[in-house]
Amino acid sequence: MAEPYCKSYYAATANTTAPFPRLEGSIDVDVAIIGGGFTGIATAVELAERGVRVAVLEANRIGWGASGRNGGQITGSLSGDKAMEKQFRRNLGSEAAEFVWNLRWRGQDIIRRRVGKYGIRCDLKHGHMQAAYRPSHITELEDMYRAACAHGMGDEVEMVYGADLHRYVGTGIYHAGLVNRRNMHVHSLNLCLGEADAARSLGAGIFIDTPVEKIIYGDRPELVTARGRVRADKVMIAGNGYHHFAPGKLSGMIFPATLGIVATEPLPEELAKSVLPQDFAVYDTRFVLDYYRLTADRRLLFGSGTNYKGTASSDIGAPMLPAIRKTFPQLADVKIEFAWEGQDGITINRIPQLGNVTPNVFYAQGYSGHGIATSHVIGEIMAAAITGNARDFDIFASAWHWRLPVGRYLGNRALALGMWYFQKMEALR
Ligand SMILES: Cc1cc2nc3c(=O)[nH]c(=O)nc-3n(C[C@H](O)[C@H](O)[C@H](O)COP(=O)(O)OP(=O)(O)OC[C@H]3O[C@@H](n4cnc5c(N)ncnc54)[C@H](O)[C@@H]3O)c2cc1C
Questions:
Q1: Span 23-29, mean pLDDT?
Q2: Complete DSSP assignment for 298-332
Q3: Class at the top of the CATH hierarchy for domain 125-184+255-346+408-428
Q4: Where do you find CATH 3.30.9.10 in the chain?
Q5: Tell me: domain 9-70+189-253+348-398, CATH 3.50.50.60, correct?
Q6: How many whole angstroms from 240 Cα to the centroid of ligand 1?
Q7: Where, residue-wise, is CATH 3.50.50.60 in the chain?
Q8: Does ligand 1 lie within 6 Å of residue 292's CB atom?
Q9: How many Cα atoms occupy the beta-carbon half-sphere of 170 within 13 Å?
Q10: Is the pLDDT reported for residue 119 higher than 90?
Q11: 73 lines ligand 1 (CB under 6 A)
Q12: For residue 426, what pLDDT is reported?
């Protein structure tokens, strides 16, 4: 049964698009994609721009999953960057570090160009700060700052300390900050809807309310739905934390973590300025972090914590209000108007998983909390692979991944235990 959008700030302020249909009957395409989040939709845009006949089948609504529920922060953070550098050396040798560095910024370029090219209305804004939560975290920001300068980004980054932090964030809880003007923030559901509309304008079939029930593998795989079927030369699974396909190959590889997020009531202009004077997005340096930004109507959109057990919370806002008040005492009386949560696919080594179930059935998943920019890079990589240039795809596909030989329930509990350990270790730093 297809589900409506959750009651989020994003759903309440979504742009109206011409309705996307449900699949009725049988169609034949070059490429069929399961999942209408950023991974599926970004790949569809790339394929449609190359003239490929593509259809996306989404079980619920466009951006119904993590893509339409997230913090909206488009940053150069890559979960698993160190693990990637190490593993990618097998294919790339000494170029691995540069490849991973470039991955950090490819997504920003793709999104900026696409939003401009198709005129997508999604409140896209530049400006971000990563804030040191403990004095011992300052070094990692300074290392990142030096790396950015060495790569010619000196004009876009800045280290700030002490009272200077107040130019960007109205709190005294941080010890330093790395300002990055290449990073952006966005109304993510409107970005996803706008990209789906762009793909449609290029001839892609975008179908909602269409859960794929079964993949029939073969020379030309077939996707079976309640009211129709799609036959294709190639299929891509882009269901991330929400799908259960190919258990023989993919179970025990990815675990859905639940992330909660809230939006306050709109703040008066002066109060909003006291919180984020430059309208930049912020997240801190902890392993499980706080992240926040202002929306176009001046709400504070605030996310905190991750439930690695993957279970729903009974009161999403309860742990957020103390975190908001601790960060911004000036918001002591602020009310939360929206609280929602979503699931993101976490991989154990935090490297995104790209690969094949069979030669003509691909998958891409698992951005471990940092998926807006990454899913757009992966969309480019998947479209290239599907149309014959598998260079970058092969680099990801040859990465080794942990696989827990247990079901999701036990796997999520093992993951929660591992993350608890990392958090405890971090607290000692
Ligand atoms: C609360 C939260 C905050 C986050 N904040 C940030 C952030 O600030 N910055 C950042 O970079 N990342 C963030 N992320 C992560 C980011 O949102 C995700 O990594 C990214 O959106 C994943 O995109 P996706 O398309 O792979 O998956 P999803 O957006 O989850 O899409 C998967 C889609 O597949 C569909 N599907 C599943 N099974 C089927 C089926 N059988 N048939 C048809 N369709 C199916 C689902 O309905 C769903 O719509 C956050 C995530 C959450 C949950």
A1: 98
A2: --EEEEE--BTT-PPPS-TTTTHHHHHHHH-GGGT
A3: alpha beta
A4: 125-184+255-346+408-428
A5: yes
A6: 6
A7: 9-70+189-253+348-398
A8: no
A9: 19
A10: yes
A11: yes
A12: 55
